[in-house]
Write a structure and sequence with these properties.
CATH architecture of the largest domain in chain B: 3-Layer(aba) Sandwich
Number of domains of chain A: 2
Number of helices of chain A: 14
Number of helices of chain B: 17
CATH topology of the largest domain in chain B: D-Maltodextrin-Binding Protein, domain 2
Distance between the termini of chain B: 57 Å
Radius of gyration of chain A: 27 Å
CATH architecture of the largest domain in chain A: Orthogonal Bundle
Strand order of the largest sheet of chain A: 1-2
Strand order of the largest sheet of chain B: 1-3-2-4-14-7
CATH superfamily of the largest domain in chain A: MetI-like
CATH topology of the largest domain in chain A: MetI-like fold
CATH class of the largest domain in chain A: Mainly Alpha
Structural class of chain A: mainly alpha
Structural class of chain B: alpha/beta
Shape of chain B: globular
Order of helices and strands of chain A: HHHEEHHHHHHHHHHH
Helix content of chain B: 40-55%
CATH class of the largest domain in chain B: Alpha Beta
Largest sheet of chain A: 2 strands, antiparallel
Oligomer: heterodimer
Number of strands of chain A: 2
Strand content of chain A: under 5%
Largest sheet of chain B: 6 strands, mixed
Number of strands of chain B: 15
Radius of gyration of chain B: 24 Å
C-alpha cells in the first residue's frame, strides 16, 4: 500500500515537467506505473489491503488455533498432546451447548428472515407514513452496545413481580416467570435480544432488494388479474431470493456463533446450562478455566460445523449455480 | 452479475461492513479501562507502578495507600496507576498477558476462584515468602494457603472472609426468637419454622451458585478436594450437606431460592432491603454490601457466628477473597512487594482494610488494636462488638482447599448441581454431586 503511494507521489511530483528529456530513471518509473496500472497487476493491488488484514487477523489466528488444539498450553509449558483435546470434547456439556446453539440458530433464521421481509414490504408500500422514521428506528438497536442492551433486558425480564415483563404478563392473568432460570424463557430472551438487535439490518437488506424489482412487473401482473398474494408469491419472492439466501446464510453463521446474547444475561454460567452456547463453552473452557488448547479444539469443531451446514444450505438452494446464469 | 442487481447489492455490502464493524466495536469499547486512579503523579523521579483490579473500592484503597507510602518514604516515592476493569475482563487480560509474556501490570488483584488458574505451569507471579514468613503467626495459615503452591505464597489476602450469619432482628423479634439461642443448625431450622409461621417470610434464601454449598461443606470439615488434591466433591459429608440444604427448601420450607440467583444481584439487594428474609449466611465482607445497597436495614442487623454441625466445632469458614500478587513481568519486583506489604500485609495496612473497606483483617494481631475500635460507618450500621464476636471464634474458623481444578468444580456447581437439585428437583443431591464429580474427574484424568 505504502509502496503505491510513494510511486504516485513521485509521479505527481514530476508531471509538471512537460516533455521531459528521456532519462533512465523516468522510464523506469513509467514502466513501473504502467505495470501497476495494467489489468494484470492492478486487481492484486486493490485486494492487497484485504489480503493483508485477512492474513494477519484471520488466517494466522486460524492456523494458530489449529495448532493450539493439539497442545496443552500453560505459561512456560507448551506441549503437544496429540488428539487428547478432541477426545474430551464430545461430552454432555458439549451436546447441551450444541443443542442450544442449533436451536438459537433455527429460531433466529426463521424470525430474522420472515419478519424483516414483511416489514420491508410494509415500509416499501404506500401504507406506511413517515417511512424514514421507522427505517431509522428499526436500525438503532444494531448500533446499541450489546452490554447496555443486556443490562436493560436483564432488568425488564428480572424475576421480581415488579419487573416490566412480569407486570405485562400479569395484566393478562399469567403468573410471574423466572425468566433467566428456565430453559424456554432463557432461549426466548436470547432469541428476543438477537431479533431485536438485527431486525433493522435485515429489513435494510430486503428494502434494498425490493428497490430493484421493476414496477412494470407488478403492473402487468395486475392486468393479468393477480391479487396481493399472487404478486408477492410470483413477483416479489423470486426477486428477493438472492437476498433471502444471503441473509439466511449469515444468520446461520451468526446463529452458531452466538455468544454475547448469552454472556450479557448470565455472565458465563447459566443455571442448568440453559444459556450455554458453543462459543460460550469455548470461552468457559478456554479462558475462564485456562485450558486454551481445549478451547481451540472446540473452535475447530465449530468451524467445521459451520462450514458444512452453510455449504449444505448453499448447495441445496443452488446458490453456486447463480453465477453462471 | 448485471448492473441492476449490483446496485441492489451495494447497500447490502455497505451494511454488512457496518454490521461487521459494529461487532468489532463492542470489543474495542470494552477494552477501555472503566476507571483509572493515580497517586503520586506530581512527584518527580517517582518509580512507576501499575496495578489492575476489578473493584472500584479496591482502586481507591490502593491509591490512598500510595499517598501514605509517599508521605512516609519521601526518598523512595512511587507513582501508582490503578486501573479498574470489569471482573471477567481483568482476569482474562491478566491471564493472556502472563501467558504471552508481556503486557502485565506490576501488581494485580486476583479473585479466589480465579487464583488456581494463575498457579498452573511455570507460575508467573512472585513469591511473597520473605514478607509473609517472618509474621506467619499473625495470619491464619489456611487463608494464606489458598494462594500458595509448593510452599510459596503468591497472594496477599484482602480479608479473613469469616462467614457469619446476619440476622434481621426486626423479623426475628416478630417471630419471638432470641438469636443467641441459635447454636446448632437444628436450632436454626427450628427458629426458621417459627419465623415462617409468624411472618410468612423465609428464614433465608439459597443462592444458585457455590455460596449456597461451599461454606456449609467446609464448616463440616469437608471440602471439594482433600489435601492431596484428590476430588472429594461427592463424598458422604458433601452429600449430607446438600441434602440438608435441599431440606431447608423443600422439606422444612424455611428457605427459598435467592432472587436474582445470587447474593450480589440487584434483585437480591432489593429483596433483602425490604426485609424479605430473616437471615443470610455470608462472609464478613458483605458488610460493605449492606451499607451500600441496603440502607433501610441500618440498625436492624445483628452479626453472629454460624450455627454448628453436631459433628464439627467450626463456627465459621473463610470464604471468598482476593489475593493481590506481584507479577514476574514487573521491572521493580522488590519495590512492588514492599508496597504490597505496606498496603495490605502490615499492621497499619490491615487496620486500613477495616477502616476503608469494612473487611475483617486477615491479621489476628490487629483485632485487639485500639485503632480498630474507632467509630466508623460499619459500627454505626451494625453494632459495637463485631470484633469481640470474631475474637471468640477465631480458633474455630475452617479453611478451604484449592486445586487447579477448583474453577471446574465451581462451574459444575453453579450451572448443574444447585440448579438440578434445588430448582428443577430433577436430581437427588447424591446423583447431582456424583454426576458432576464424574465430569470433573474425567477432565482431571485427561489433564494428567
Amino acid at each position: 500500500m505504502s509502496g503505491l503511494n510513494i510511486k504516485n507521489s513521485e509521479y505527481v511530483h514530476e508531471t509538471p515537467n512537460q516533455n521531459p528529456p528521456p532519462s533512465g530513471r523516468k522510464k523506469k518509473n513509467n514502466s513501473l506505473l504502467r505495470l501497476l496500472n495494467s489489468k494484470k497487476v492492478a486487481p492484486y493491488i486493490f485486494v492487497f489491503p484485504f489480503i493483508l488484514s485477512f492474513s494477519i487477523l484471520t488466517l494466522y489466528p486460524t492456523i494458530q488455533a489449529f495448532i493450539m488444539s493439539f497442545q496443552r498450553i500453560l505459561p512456560g509449558q507448551v506441549e503437544f498432546i496429540g488428539l487428547q483435546n478432541y477426545e474430551r470434547i464430545f461430552n454432555q456439556t458439549f451436546y447441551k451447548a450444541l443443542a442450544n446453539s442449533t436451536m438459537f440458530m433455527l429460531l433466529t433464521v426463521i424470525i430474522l428472515v420472515t419478519i424483516p421481509i414483511i416489514l420491508a414490504i410494509l415500509l416499501d408500500s404506500n401504507l406506511v407514513k413517515s417511512k424514514t422514521f421507522f427505517r431509522s428506528a428499526l436500525f438503532i438497536p444494531a448500533l446499541t452496545s450489546i452490554v447496555v442492551a443486556g443490562v436493560i433486558f436483564r432488568l425488564v425480564f428480572s424475576e421480581s413481580d415488579q419487573a416490566i415483563a412480569n407486570q405485562i404478563i400479569g395484566f393478562f392473568g399469567f403468573d410471574p416467570v423466572r425468566w433467566q432460570f428456565t430453559a424456554w424463557s432463557g432461549m426466548f430472551l436470547m432469541v428476543g435480544m438477537a431479533a431485536w438487535r438485527w431486525m433493522g439490518v435485515n429489513v435494510l437488506y430486503f428494502l434494498a432488494g425490493l428497490q430493484s424489482i421493476p414496477k412494470e412487473l407488478y403492473e402487468s401482473a395486475e392486468m393479468d388479474g393477480a391479487n396481493l398474494f399472487h404478486k408477492f408469491r410470483h413477483v416479489t419472492l423470486p426477486f428477493l431470493q438472492p437476498i433471502i439466501i444471503f441473509v439466511t446464510t449469515i444468520s446461520i453463521i451468526g446463529g452458531f456463533r452466538v455468544f454475547e446474547e448469552s454472556y450479557v444475561i448470565w455472565q458465563g454460567n447459566s443455571p442448568g446450562n440453559i444459556g450455554l452456547t458453543l462459543v460460550g463453552l469455548l470461552y468457559q473452557e478456554g479462558i475462564q478455566q485456562n485450558d486454551m488448547g481445549f478451547g481451540a479444539a472446540i473452535g475447530v469443531v465449530l468451524l467445521i460445523l459451520i462450514f458444512f451446514v452453510s455449504m449444505i444450505y448453499l448447495l441445496v438452494t443452488g446458490a453456486f449455480k447463480r453465477g453462471d446464469e | 452479475m448485471n448492473k441492476k442487481s449490483f446496485k441492489a447489492f451495494s447497500p447490502l455490502l455497505l451494511s454488512s461492513i457496518l454490521v461487521l464493524s459494529a461487532c468489532g466495536g463492542d470489543d474495542s469499547s470494552s477494552t477501555n479501562s472503566d476507571d483509572v486512579q493515580t497517586a503520586g503523579s506530581d512527584i518527580e523521579d517517582a518509580t512507576e507502578l501499575s496495578f489492575w483490579t476489578f473493584a472500584g473500592t479496591h482502586a481507591t484503597f490502593y491509591a490512598n495507600a500510595a499517598e501514605r507510602w509517599n508521605e512516609e518514604n519521601p526518598d523512595n516515592p512511587i507513582q501508582l496507576t490503578v486501573e479498574n476493569y470489569p471482573f471477567d475482563q481483568m482476569h482474562n487480560n491478566l491471564l493472556m498477558a502472563l501467558q504471552s509474556g508481556s503486557g502485565a501490570p506490576d501488581l494485580a488483584d486476583i479473585e479466589l476462584a480465579k487464583f488456581p488458574n494463575f498457579l498452573q505451569g511455570d507460575v508467573q507471579l512472585e513469591p511473597l515468602n520473605d514478607l509473609i514468613e517472618p509474621e506467619l503467626d499473625s495470619f491464619m495459615q489456611e487463608r494464606l494457603d489458598i494462594y500458595a503452591k509448593d510452599g510459596n505464597y503468591y497472594g496477599a489476602p484482602t480479608h479473613l472472609g469469616a462467614s457469619v450469619v446476619y440476622y434481621n432482628t426486626e423479623i426475628m423479634d416478630e417471630a419471638g426468637v432470641d438469636i443467641d439461642t441459635i447454636e446448632t443448625w437444628d436450632d436454626y431450622v427450628e427458629a426458621g419454622q417459627a419465623v415462617v409461621e409468624a411472618t410468612g417470610k423465609p428464614m433465608t434464601t439459597i443462592p444458585g451458585n457455590w455460596y449456597g454449598i461451599w461454606p456449609f461443606v467446609a464448616q463440616k470439615g469437608s471440602d471439594f478436594f482433600d489435601e492431596n488434591g484428590e476430588l472429594t466433591l461427592d463424598n458422604e459429608e458433601n452429600i449430607e450437606t446438600l441434602e440438608f440444604i435441599n431440606d431447608l427448601v423443600h422439606e422444612h420450607e424455611i428457605a427459598e431460592m435467592a432472587p436474582g440467583g445470587q447474593y450480589h444481584a440487584e434483585e437480591f439487594y432489593g429483596f433483602m432491603n425490604d426485609g424479605g428474609q430473616a437471615s443470610i449466611v455470608i462472609p464478613m465482607y458483605y458488610m460493605k454490601d449492606f451499607t451500600t445497597y441496603m440502607p433501610d436495614l441500618k440498625g436492624k442487623i445483628q452479626i453472629r457466628p454460624m450455627p454448628t454441625w453436631s459433628d464439627s466445632d467450626y463456627q465459621s469458614v473463610t470464604m471468598g477473597g482476593t489475593g493481590t500478587a506481584v507479577t514476574s513481568q514487573s521491572e521493580n519486583v522488590e519495590l512492588a512487594k514492599e508496597f504490597l506489604y505496606f498496603a495490605k500485609l502490615s499492621k497499619e495496612g490491615n487496620i486500613q482494610l477495616w477502616r476503608e473497606l469494612g473487611f475483617d483483617p486477615p491479621r489476628f494481631d490487629v483485632w485487639e488494636d485500639e485503632a480498630m475500635r474507632e467509630e466508623n460507618v460499619y459500627y454505626e450500621y451494625f453494632h459495637d462488638d463485631i470484633f469481640d464476636i470474631l475474637s471468640e471464634i477465631k480458633d474455630n474458623v475452617a479453611g478451604i482447599q484449592l486445586s487447579e481444578f477448583t474453577p471446574d468444580v465451581l462451574t459444575e456447581i453453579d450451572s448443574n448441581v444447585m440448579h438440578n437439585v434445588l430448582t428443577e428437583q430433577s436430581h437427588t443431591p447424591e446423583e447431582a454431586l456424583k454426576e458432576s464429580a464424574d465430569t470433573v474427574r474425567q477432565k482431571m484424568e485427561s489433564a494428567n
